[in-house]
User: Fold this.
Amino acid sequence: MTLFHIQTKVKIPQKAHYKKWIKHIAQREGRRVGELNVILCSDAYLLDMNQKYLNHNTYTDIITFDYSEDNWLSGDIFISTDRVQENASMYNVDFQDELKRVIAHGVLHLCGYKDKTKMEKEKMREMENIALNEFSKMV
Assistant:
């Protein structure tokens, strides 16, 4: 598992804690972590990926590419730190807390959770909250 950044100065603090937490989320869901990359990037970088690979011309906070097989979580989770900062300001939460929520969101997508319908969004939010609570207990 790698955690790194492209075109942004924001870095993931305490990488060892994040890696342990991500593995914990996966294990809770009956999964194991394989080749998994969490990449922090700029709005421009993620917009380019959104246009190129998903044919969407919009900003987004996260794009998750799922390469998982069987019970092995594998994929690339790209996160716009610009969107995370905007979300944190909009919802009046700490940047690091919002970053954790978005990372958990990506990992949960790899575990099979969706967020297209209202019910799926509610379940995703519930699982994000559980993951955030677990992070605070692990540190």
User: Anything to note?
Assistant: The chain has one domain: 2-138.
